């Protein structure tokens, strides 16, 4: 029987959770670290303030009312609830997949990083009405959109998902 990730090693729905607690604990650690850093920057910096650390990197305080790369940030506010709802749905789906997946630590780690990041940004949208960003990379006149630790988790998790699938596809079939 193939699991949610197309792997026969996935646990059937009736099996006990495959150490889902450790993955949820890691997601919680990501959420806590993300929220602590956001509280620090929200209370220690004025909006738009920047502290240069390297010739290509600053700490700053910026707000994003949209999604990745400020997608839909200029809309009237409905996007706050759309992205909040999407984040909650993603968190529920990821948690269900984690409960049903065993023997795939790389896949579970990828989902856990995405889960922690998604919930971290959902908390911002509910509490502040926007996502708090504070990491700014740039080179001369080029700027990468500011981001936060939740975004790092989501991005690393997405890259790890792709890597996991590529490595899984290269394995010889039994």
TrEMBL record:
<comment type="pathway">
    <text>Protein modification; lipoprotein biosynthesis (signal peptide cleavage).</text>
</comment>
<feature type="transmembrane region" description="Helical">
    <location>
        <begin position="143"/>
        <end position="163"/>
    </location>
</feature>
<feature type="active site">
    <location>
        <position position="133"/>
    </location>
</feature>
<keyword id="KW-1133">Transmembrane helix</keyword>
<keyword id="KW-0378">Hydrolase</keyword>
<dbReference type="GO" id="GO:0005886">
    <property type="term" value="C:plasma membrane"/>
</dbReference>
<keyword id="KW-0812">Transmembrane</keyword>
<keyword id="KW-0064">Aspartyl protease</keyword>
<dbReference type="InterPro" id="IPR001872">
    <property type="entry name" value="Peptidase_A8"/>
</dbReference>
<protein>
    <recommendedName>
        <fullName>Lipoprotein signal peptidase</fullName>
        <ecNumber>3.4.23.36</ecNumber>
    </recommendedName>
</protein>
<feature type="transmembrane region" description="Helical">
    <location>
        <begin position="107"/>
        <end position="123"/>
    </location>
</feature>
<dbReference type="GO" id="GO:0006508">
    <property type="term" value="P:proteolysis"/>
</dbReference>
<dbReference type="GO" id="GO:0004190">
    <property type="term" value="F:aspartic-type endopeptidase activity"/>
</dbReference>
<keyword id="KW-0472">Membrane</keyword>
<comment type="function">
    <text>This protein specifically catalyzes the removal of signal peptides from prolipoproteins.</text>
</comment>
<comment type="similarity">
    <text>Belongs to the peptidase A8 family.</text>
</comment>
<feature type="transmembrane region" description="Helical">
    <location>
        <begin position="20"/>
        <end position="41"/>
    </location>
</feature>
<keyword id="KW-0645">Protease</keyword>
<feature type="transmembrane region" description="Helical">
    <location>
        <begin position="78"/>
        <end position="98"/>
    </location>
</feature>
<keyword id="KW-1003">Cell membrane</keyword>
<feature type="active site">
    <location>
        <position position="151"/>
    </location>
</feature>
<dbReference type="Pfam" id="PF01252">
    <property type="entry name" value="Peptidase_A8"/>
</dbReference>
<keyword id="KW-0449">Lipoprotein</keyword>
């Amino acid at each position: 029987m193939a699991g949610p990730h197309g792997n026969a090693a996935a646990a059937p729905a009736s099996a006990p959770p495959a150490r889902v607690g450790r993955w949820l604990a890691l997601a919680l650690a990501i959420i806590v670290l993300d929220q602590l850093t956001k509280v620090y920057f929200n209370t220690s910096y004025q909006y738009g303030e920047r502290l240069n650390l390297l010739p290509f990197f600053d700490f700053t305080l910026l707000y994003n009312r949209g999604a990745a790369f400020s997608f839909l940030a200029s809309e009237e506010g409905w996007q706050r609830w759309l992205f909040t709802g999407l984040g909650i749905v993603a968190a529920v789906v990821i948690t269900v997949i984690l409960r049903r997946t065993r023997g795939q630590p790389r896949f579970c780690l990828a989902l856990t990083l995405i889960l922690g990041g998604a919930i971290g940004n959902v908390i911002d949208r509910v509490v502040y009405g926007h996502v708090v960003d504070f990491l700014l990379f740039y080179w001369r006149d080029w700027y990468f959109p500011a981001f936060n630790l939740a975004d790092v988790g989501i991005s690393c998790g997405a890259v790890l998902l792709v890597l996991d699938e590529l490595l899984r596809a290269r394995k010889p079939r039994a």
